Amino acid sequence: MSIATSGLHHVTAIAGDPQRNVDFYLKALGLRLVKTTVNFDDPGTYHLYYGDSSGKPGSLMTFFPWREAPVGLHGNGQATTTAFSVPQAAIGWWKSHLTSLGVAVSQVVNRDEEDVLTFRDPDGITIALVAHVQGDPREPWDHGFVPPEHAIRGLHSVTLSVDREEATAGMLVDDLGLRQVHEDSNRLRFAAGEGGAGALVDVLVTPEAPQGVVAVGTVHHVAWRAPDERTQAEWREELVDRGVNVTSILDRQYFRSIYFREPGGTLLEVATDEPGFAIDEPLLELGRALKLPPWLEPKREEIEAMLPKLNLPSESGKPA
Predict the structure, then answer these.
(1) What pLDDT, on the 0 to 100 scale, is given for residue 318?
(2) Cystine design at 60: which of 10, 34, 108, 156 (Cβ 3.0–4.6 Å)?
(3) Model confidence at 132, in pLDDT bands (50, 70, 90)?
(4) Can you give the pLDDT at residue 320?
(5) How many domains does the chain have?
(6) What pLDDT, on a 0 to 100 scale, did the predictor assign at position 39?
(7) For 28-76, what is the HEC assignment?
(8) Do residues 36 and 310 touch, judged by C-beta distance below 8 A?
(9) How far apart are CA 5 and CA 215, in angstroms?
(10) Cβ neighbours, 10 Å, residue 104
(11) What are phi and psi of 42, to 5 degrees?
(12) Residue of 134 and 197 predicted with greater confidence
């Protein structure tokens, strides 16, 4: 493959109640709601984007909150853990902070020389906070509910659970341009670009685990970065030539996307860095209002009537 990703773009998961989702990711994790929009394929459902101050690629976790959908099953063929990067000295603070909010957290474990704290969000999605051993120069969202010195810097990695690793590892290397950098028992780590936080994926080999079912409380897909539309189009052509069943290029308003599955079953996306989240509202006002793409704008009144009202906290950390 002549094209390689530089790292993670975003992770998209399925939530239940949207207000509960907003409260947890803003108030408990201190992320910024950088875009409030809808699922373009199901406009009666929100699509909520959380990230850093501007929603830079590599900082983002997004959700489709389907209140009436069934609960999913964690297992093979899914991304089973989404990890965020935090400062090295912050793990103890996070354990105390989350415990004070009633979140059940794991013991801190050391993996690949990094301290890791694991817990579940209110829908059961597994989240990890990793004190990245090399440090993380990315700036956090500094107007949220978590003090900046402890705040999340962005995505650290994702874990894909599979029943066998060979084909999945082959696609990560051959089709995404990653390289294997570590192996510990049944966990293999791959890195994009120069590696480090935001450019890592772990492949966890669990042949005894059930096949996962994607629904509420599970990750829907994992997106990798492409710098621009031209590169993405060339990448798609190469994937097609290699026999990968890949979608056409889809307009997601804030980036362009293609989708395909890795052999273990996880849905992957390649998303462009451009144009970003400030194309339809000022940077200081990101996420505060419902934004619709031009093709859905004529149906705004109908769409707003279907969506539950969200009570969003203000940037000062007080109810809006």
Answers:
(1) 41
(2) 10
(3) confident
(4) 36
(5) 1
(6) 97
(7) HCCCEEEEEEEECCEEEEEEEEEECCCCCCCCEEEEEECCCCCECECCE
(8) yes
(9) 28
(10) 9
(11) -150, 75
(12) 197
- Concatenated DSSP letters for 227-295? SSHHHHHHHHHHHHHTT---PPPEE-SSSEEEEEE-TTS-EEEEEES-S-GGGSS-GGGTTSSB---TT
Residue 318 lies in a domain: no
| Number of CB atoms found within 10 A of residue 246's CB | 20
Residue bearing tokens 């969000």? 121
Predicted pLDDT at 113:
86
Rg, Å, the chain Cα set: 19
**Tens of pLDDT, residues 37-73:** 999 999 999 999 999 999 999 999 999 999 889 999 9
Cα(223)–Cα(4) distance, rounded to whole angstroms?
Answer: 13
Whether residue 89 lies inside any domain: the answer is yes
3-state helix, strand, coil in the chain (%, to 5): 20, 35, 45
State residue 315's pLDDT score.
53
Residue 129 lies in a domain: yes
Task: Give the CATH number of the domain where residue 127 resides.
Answer: 3.10.180.10
State the Cα–Cα distance between residues 91 and 87, nearest whole angstrom: 8
Question: Quick check: is 2 in a domain?
Answer: no
What pLDDT, on the 0 to 100 scale, is given for residue 216?
98
Instruction: Measure the CA–CA gap between 185 and 121, rounded to whole angstroms.
Output: 27
Distance in angstroms (rounded) separating the CA atoms of residues 222 and 261: 10
CA 185/CA 168 separation, integer angstroms: 17
CA distance 177 to 166: 15
User: Residue 75 has what pLDDT?
Assistant: 98
User: Cα–Cα distance between 161 and 264 in angstroms, integer?
Assistant: 8
Domain extent for 110 = 8-306
- Structure confidence at residue 319 as a pLDDT band (50, 70, 90): very low
